[in-house]
Amino acid sequence: MFKLVIDPQKELGHINPELQGHFSEHLGRCIYGGVYVGENSDIPNTNGMRNDVVSALKELKLPVLRWPGGCFADEYHWKDGIGEKSKRKKMINTNWGGVVEDNSFGTHEYMELCRQLGCKTYINGNVGSGTVQEMSEWVEYMTFDGVSPMAELRKENGHEEPWRVDFFGIGNENWGCGGNMLPEYYADQFRQYQSYVKNYAPDKKISKIACGPNAQDYEWMETVLRQCHKLSGSWNGAHGFIDGISLHYYTLPYDWAKKGAATGFNEIEWYMTLSKTLFMEELVTKHSAIIDRYDPDHKIGLIVDEWGTWYDVEEGTNPGFLYQQNTMRDALVAAINLNIFNKHCDRVKMANIAQLVNVLQAVILTEGEKIVKTPTYHVFNMYKHHQDGTLIGSFVDTKTIGLQEEYQVPNLHESCSKDKDGKYHITLANLSVEESYEICTDILGNEIASAKAEILTGKMDDKNTFEAPDVVKTLSFDTLSVNGDKITFTIPANSVIHIEVELK
Ligand code: AHR
Question: Is there a catalytic annotation at residue 435?
């Protein structure tokens, strides 16, 4: 019997809805075909956005969408993506398959997508190949409500009112595809570029996100913060203009040369993948410790704006399109990461899975007019109850499992929150591929009024396909036994459970 202890007295922080954010790039079929098909498509759409995809994403309460990249962001010139579509410049998408980008999805279309989704906006600006003026004018175009060259241009293009930009990224992966910069150089670039990302509407502040490190590059984090955490001449206090700093970490079963297959993997690869996912805990802890030294008041958010699995592409697909299937293993990866972000909500203020549709660990796959919700989708659907909740102290007894010394994992992984209506939400994952476990949940000293649960489970490489879209789906889990302040149940191998508890 494994004990899961929930301590309602321990209210540990606010879980920003944005911890369940998403990322969409001009990459493969994420934007084109995935979310955007154009007004004239036979696929049912509203202003060019697929109705089926938008409605599925709305169900997740998708809180924020990052766009337009990724590596694409640092070669994107926003003026190419506005105005009459037939006249928009075509460009080469050099990072992703060398295909022609016709710019038919640009700023107006992105804002329309976010309007339909009802989500916050997170635009990633171009530092690598752009200019300060270009970035500054983009912000003016989107957010200035008055008379100015860019505001006039926006109006000419059919949008009278300014939009709201909630988050603005100053470059992406500038240590790599975004310009191969050294941290000292990027820090200087950040200081300069961000000076011209103006807050034209003081009540609608744009949060500025600096480009943070790749995985365990602690030196990058240290250097950028040292040089940028205080900016002289800042008008808004000790923290200058850095509201967040990003972290990118992908789960690859093997390495960049041979990533591993999305399906048809074995148990060794199962545990390798989960063990590498759990490295996120160490990354977040160590990067947070660095940020703590510069920002003890926790004003700077750690923004994990790219995370998820990265496998070898599906056979017969364009290697530059990063199209991969999604199995129960991905469901476990999502559950672990989302639990980690919850537990670190004092510092992690946003996280964006890569990527929204048809790319990497997508929540949705499309093929023509068909759509499939992946196992990862169902995890987000169960975890949405944590959004905007209060993190509650929780702990689970675990034992170590795995097939190889270096890839051992705990058998169980959890987090717990309390929502605005006072209901508790426990999410628990069983990482074992073969063992089920008896769990006794103890809600310390509190009588339980009711408890209900839902479960996602299956064989380790179960997946949803266009032919069989519902192999992996959430089912109600009604074998909970409630007694006083305890709930007992058996969690099957390879599963994710969400329990909703009401106290007396
Ligand atoms: O998500 C795919 C790519 O991964 C992004 O474009 C880049 O930022 C990262 O290397």
Answer: no
Q: Which CATH number fits domain 9-391: 1.10.10.60, 1.10.260.40, 3.20.20.80, 3.90.1170.50?
A: 3.20.20.80
Give me the sign of the Cα torsion angle 218, 223, 226, 230: negative
pLDDT tens-digit series, residues 386-408: 999 999 999 999 999 999 999 99
Query: How far is residue 502's CA from residue 497's CA, in Å, rounded to a whole number?
Result: 16
Going from N- to C-terminal start, the domains of the chain cover 2-8+392-503, 9-391
**Separation of alpha carbons 307 and 434, rounded Å:** 27
Give exposure, 297-310, as e/b (b: 16+ Cβ within 10 Å).
eeebbbbbbbbbbb
**pTM recorded for the entire structure:** 0.96
Residue nearest to atom 2 of ligand 1 (CA): 70
Closest ligand 1 atom to 25 CA: 6
Coil, helix or strand for 411?
coil
What string of DSSP letters covers 176-205?
TTTT---HHHHHHHHHHHHHTS--SSTTSP
Say whether pLDDT at 237 is over 50.
Answer: no
Q: Is the CB of 306 under 6 A from ligand 1?
A: yes
Choose one of 22, 23, 25, 323 to mutate for the ligand 1 pocket test, by most ligand atoms within 8 angstroms of C-beta. Answer: 25
* Atom of ligand 1 at shortest range from CA of 306: 1
pLDDT digits (tens, 9 = 90+) for 202-228: 888 899 999 999 999 999 999 999 999
Residue 240 has pLDDT above 60, yes or no: no
The CATH homologous superfamily for domain 2-8+392-503 is Golgi alpha-mannosidase II (2.60.40.1180)
Amino acid 233: pLDDT: 40
Ligand 1 atom with minimal separation from the 23 CA: 1
306 an active-site residue? yes
Nearest CA to ligand 1 atom 4: 70
Instruction: Reply yes or no on whether the pLDDT at 260 is more than 90.
Output: yes
Q: Which residues have C-beta within 8 Å of that of residue 430, sequence separation ≥ 6?
A: 411, 412, 436, 437, 491, 492, 493, 494, 495, 496, 497
For ligand 1, say whether the CB of 171 is within 6 Å of any of its atoms.
no
Q: State residue 231's pLDDT score.
A: 61
Residues near 172 by Cβ (< 8 Å), separated by ≥ 6? 69, 70, 71, 73, 74, 124, 128, 178, 211, 246
Quote the strand ranges of 24-70, DSSP E: 45-46, 49-50, 64-67
Strands 120-124 and 167-170: parallel
Residue 235 pLDDT more than 70? Answer: no
Average pLDDT value for the chain: 96
